[in-house]
């Protein structure tokens, strides 16, 4: 029989400190305990075979080459009670609503700066602020249409927003695929209890993309813009295009005409595109406006967007609020625009741009997580209590050289979920990335992507660095 | 409307998969034929190199020309651009960029075949496992065909798929006819020492059966003709029989259908007209080996012209 236990000093998502199941996870744990190790391992093996034959992959880079790898998945799901989830959902909608108002404000009147809530010098030094976007009015004042905010839970059970991904967050395709696999692995559990379905995400995405089409276009042509097959998230780009019934285009498939409209090159000639769901970073979008030697983008795209002939999601420049320095102000941003207290707290964040906070970080570096302000994928991240003295020193040198690029946070313990490791069930650390859609209305995915650090004790959940994933169940507990 | 880049990938994905399937059929039927023949009668596997057009490539990399080397070259050699393993990998790479226009099950079938071939091609060289390996390549291709036929919209992506498939299939049929039928008709096989009869005369019917089988045409041929196999009849069947879906004439019809439904047909259909002209001239040449060989070259040129017309009309042009 499989034995499931939690780890001391951390919060386990399935098992309480006294060893009893959390109510929403009771049925799952009963099933796990009833299974022999061999049966559990067999289910894991079958899931991996499904992933391989369904071609669910991600791309990793090694020696300059992209390699298509099978998506790492652990069959034991993470469970969240529906009652808790409803609060998180509200909190995320509140957060993204405020963030979108913030971005729109920055590209227009900058009231928040004039009112002294957000420091002007931060904006001046922001690498993600795009002067090219000033004065543009995207539909509904929404800039970050698709975002993925990473949530983590500390030892006392508090859920925090760890970061907001507002540029081209990825992972949602794996939410849907993980569920497809998980339904096979635990078919009986899905029959026994009420687990929220995740499939409606792509439909909601479609609705949102249609809603932001240029004025007067009721049945827009939608394209997903990908950097191409060598991008680590190509699988997802293709998956989303499939589910949306949209064209999956590369920069070279698009052309901006004399009329400032965007067209794609089809076998029958040029066809107008009204909405672009781009999965390319701002700076590569348009060589006329940004990096002149970008071959991924479309010359003239910014011109078309500014002329209002095409909607781009996420809007260029939305990344100004996706910055680990700006992150520290999000609670104030929420209060400023909504007049409400944040429903989901931020992790306390020290901003090295301020000398006193930088000094604190340098003095306490062995008790902090130090992060570069503008990197994703976990690169450049330092976990103080696990680093050697020389690693700490070299990070201190990096911070002193460019303080604005660094922030630090206390080391959270990150909650765990029982995970199948070499045939044994052991607690492993997880985070959670729900996806939030903002358009005429807003929508939060039912759960999100649970990423798990497969190495014992590790806090690094990125799939590019040995992380795995789990299905996330939002369960109505009676 | 279909993106030009995606159309190109679909077209090539489809061609590669058809080539893998055709190569599998040819190797399978040739193996059966050799097993059927008396040991002295047929020891050469070289016709397979000629049919697949890989003779030069093979000679550059091999000193030994025997069954094992040739079969490995044709099914499991990743350095051979038209081996089964390479074609399946290329098909998958092309179709990986067209997943949004294909039914999900189609991609899964291709992916599954790719995994199977990667793991089993080397083991499929040996005679005892060869039939099973090649059979799986063929049946997976047929499964894919079933997926496309039953659940795919008859849209432009579908027409490109059919177009690639029919061009490749016609091409392979002309190679089989050009190399093996021409040789059979010319009675170019080794003399048996005792009585001076040629092997071809002795085992003529078996050879022709093998030939028909290599494009999976034997049973259908027999249903249409209802008599003993005659060489010229078999050749006419493979090239011209409108009822047989793998005949060159049927493939030409399908190309015409697809191109008629796609845009810019006035730029592409003339190339199919030209193919029909060559086909029409074949009736009279079906029983003469040397003339047949030359006629197959003409057919292949016509097919290459269709390929050029498709690429020019849909992929290269910047309209």
Topology:
The complex is a heterodimer of chains A (478) and B (319).
Chain A: H1 26-34, H2 37-53, E1 57-62, E2 65-70, E3 73-81, H3 82-106, H4 111-114, H5 120-124, E4 146-153, E5 159-165, H6 172-185, H7 187-192, H8 200-211, E6 222-225, H9 234-244, E7 247-249, E8 254-256, E9 262-266, E10 269-273, E11 275-278, H10 282-285, H11 301-307, E12 311-313, H12 324-327, H13 330-338, E13 350-351, H14 355-363, E14 368-372, E15 382-383, H15 389-401, E16 406-410, E17 416-421, E18 424-433, E19 435-438, E20 442-444, E21 449-453, E22 467-475
Helix pairs in contact in A: 2-6, 3-13
Chain B: H1 4-36, H2 46-51, H3 55-61, H4 67-75, H5 84-96, H6 104-120, H7 127-151, H8 156-185, H9 199-202, H10 204-214, H11 218-225, H12 231-240, H13 248-261, H14 265-280, H15 289-316
Helix pairs in contact in B: 1-5, 1-7, 1-8, 1-10, 1-15, 5-6, 6-7, 8-10, 8-12, 8-13, 8-15, 13-14, 14-15
If you had to describe this structure to a student in words, what would you say it looks like?
- The complex is a heterodimer of chains A (478) and B (319).
- With 478 residues, chain A is of the alpha+beta class.
- Chain A contains 15 helices and 22 strands.
- Chain A has a five-stranded mixed sheet with strand order 3-22-21-18-17.
- Chain A is globular.
- Chain A starts with 25 loop residues before the first helix and ends with a strand.
- Chain B is an all-alpha fold and 319 residues long.
- Chain B has 15 helices and no strands.
- In chain B, helix 8 packs antiparallel against helix 13.
- Chain A binds chain B through residues 52-55, 224, 229, 238-239, 241-242, 246-250, 252-253, 264-271, and chain B through 1-7, 96-97, 99-100, 104, 107-108, 111-112, 115, 156, 262-264, 313-314, 318-319.
Strand-residue proportion of chain B: under 5%
Structural class of chain B: mainly alpha
Main sheet overview of chain B? none
Give the ordered list of helices and strands of chain B.
HHHHHHHHHHHHHHH
Residue stretches of chain A low in confidence (pLDDT < 50, at least 5 long) are none
Largest sheet data of chain A: 5 strands, mixed
Mean pLDDT level of chain A: 92
Largest interface: A-B, 25 and 25 residues
Helix count of chain B, per DSSP?
15
Radius of gyration of chain B: 20 Å
The percent range for helix content of chain A is 25-40%
Number of strands of chain B: 0
């Amino acid at each position: 029989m499989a034995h499931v236990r939690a780890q001391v000093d951390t919060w386990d998502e399935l098992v309480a400190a006294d060893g009893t199941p959390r109510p929403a996870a009771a049925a799952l744990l009963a099933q796990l305990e009833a299974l022999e190790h061999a049966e559990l391992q067999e289910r894991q093996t079958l899931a991996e075979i499904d992933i391989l034959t369904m071609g669910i992959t991600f791309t990793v880079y090694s020696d300059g080459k992209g390699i298509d790898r099978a998506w790492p998945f652990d069959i034991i799901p993470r469970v969240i009670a529906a009652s808790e989830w409803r609060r998180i959902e509200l909190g995320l909608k509140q957060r993204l609503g405020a963030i979108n108002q913030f971005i729109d404000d920055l590209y227009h009147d900058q009231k928040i700066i004039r009112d002294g809530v957000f420091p002007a010098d931060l904006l001046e030094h922001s690498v993600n602020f795009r002067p090219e976007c000033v004065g543009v009015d995207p539909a509904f004042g929404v800039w970050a249409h698709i975002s993925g905010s990473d949530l983590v839970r500390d030892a006392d059970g508090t859920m925090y927003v760890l970061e907001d991904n507002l540029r081209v967050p990825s992972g949602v395709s794996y939410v849907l695929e993980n569920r497809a696999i998980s339904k096979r692995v635990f078919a009986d559990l899905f029959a026994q209890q009420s687990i929220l379905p995740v499939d409606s995400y792509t439909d909601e995405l479609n609705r949102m993309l249609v809603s932001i089409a240029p004025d007067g276009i009721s049945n827009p042509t939608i394209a997903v813009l990908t950097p191409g097959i060598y991008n680590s998230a190509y699988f997802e780009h293709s998956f989303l295009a499939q589910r949306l019934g949209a064209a999956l285009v590369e920069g070279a498939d698009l052309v901006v005409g004399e009329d400032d409209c965007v067209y794609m090159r089809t076998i029958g000639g040029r066809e107008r595109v009204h909405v672009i769901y781009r999965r390319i970073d701002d700076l590569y979008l348009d060589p006329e406006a940004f990096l002149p030697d970008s071959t991924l983008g479309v010359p003239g795209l910014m011109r078309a967007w500014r002329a209002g002939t095409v909607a781009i999601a996420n809007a260029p420049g939305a990344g100004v609020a996706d910055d680990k320095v700006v992150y520290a102000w999000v609670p104030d941003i929420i209060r400023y625009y909504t007049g409400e207290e944040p429903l989901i707290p931020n992790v306390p964040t020290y901003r090295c741009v301020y000398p006193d906070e930088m000094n604190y970080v340098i003095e306490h570096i062995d008790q902090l997580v130090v992060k570069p302000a503008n990197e994703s994928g976990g690169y450049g991240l330092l976990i103080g209590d696990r680093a050697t003295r020389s690693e700490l020193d070299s990070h201190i040198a990096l911070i002193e050289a460019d303080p604005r690029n660094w922030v630090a946070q206390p080391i959270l313990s990150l909650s765990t979920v029982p995970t199948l490791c070499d045939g044994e069930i052991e607690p492993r650390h997880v985070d959670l990335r729900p996806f939030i859609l903002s358009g005429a209305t807003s929508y939060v995915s039912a759960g999100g992507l649970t990423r798990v650090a497969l190495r014992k004790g590790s806090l690094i959940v990125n799939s590019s660095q040995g992380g795995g994933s789990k299905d996330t169940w939002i369960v109505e507990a009676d | 409307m279909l993106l030009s880049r995606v159309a190109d990938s679909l077209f090539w994905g489809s061609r590669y998969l058809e080539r893998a399937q055709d190569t599998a059929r040819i190797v399978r039927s040739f193996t059966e034929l050799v097993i059927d023949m008396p040991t002295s009668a047929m020891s050469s596997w070289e016709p397979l190199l000629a049919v697949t057009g890989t003779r030069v490539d093979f000679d550059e990399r091999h000193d030994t020309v025997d069954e094992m080397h040739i079969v490995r070259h044709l099914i499991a050699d990743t350095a051979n651009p038209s081996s089964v393993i390479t074609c399946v990998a290329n098909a998958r790479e092309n179709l990986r960029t067209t997943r949004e226009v294909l039914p999900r099950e189609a991609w899964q079938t291709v992916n599954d075949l790719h995994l199977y071939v990667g793991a089993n091609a080397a083991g499929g060289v040996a005679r005892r496992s060869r039939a099973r390996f090649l059979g799986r390549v063929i049946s997976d291709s047929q499964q894919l065909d079933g997926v496309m036929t039953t659940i795919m919209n008859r849209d432009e992506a579908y027409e490109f798929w059919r177009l690639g498939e029919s061009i490749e299939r016609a091409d392979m049929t002309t190679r089989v006819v050009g190399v093996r039928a021409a040789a059979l008709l010319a009675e170019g096989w080794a003399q048996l020492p005792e009585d001076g009869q040629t092997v071809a005369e002795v085992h003529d019917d078996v050879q022709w059966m093998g030939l028909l089988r290599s494009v999976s045409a034997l049973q259908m041929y027999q249903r249409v003709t209802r008599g003993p196999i005659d060489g010229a009849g078999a050749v006419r069947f493979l090239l011209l029989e409108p009822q047989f879906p793998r005949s060159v004439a049927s493939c030409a019809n399908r190309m015409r259908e697809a191109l008629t439904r796609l845009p810019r047909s006035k730029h592409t259909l003339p190339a199919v007209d030209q193919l029909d002209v060559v086909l029409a001239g074949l009736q009279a040449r079906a029983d003469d080996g040397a003339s047949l060989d030359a006629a197959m070259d003409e057919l292949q040129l016509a097919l290459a012209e269709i390929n050029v017309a498709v690429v020019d009309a849909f992929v290269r042009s910047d309209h």
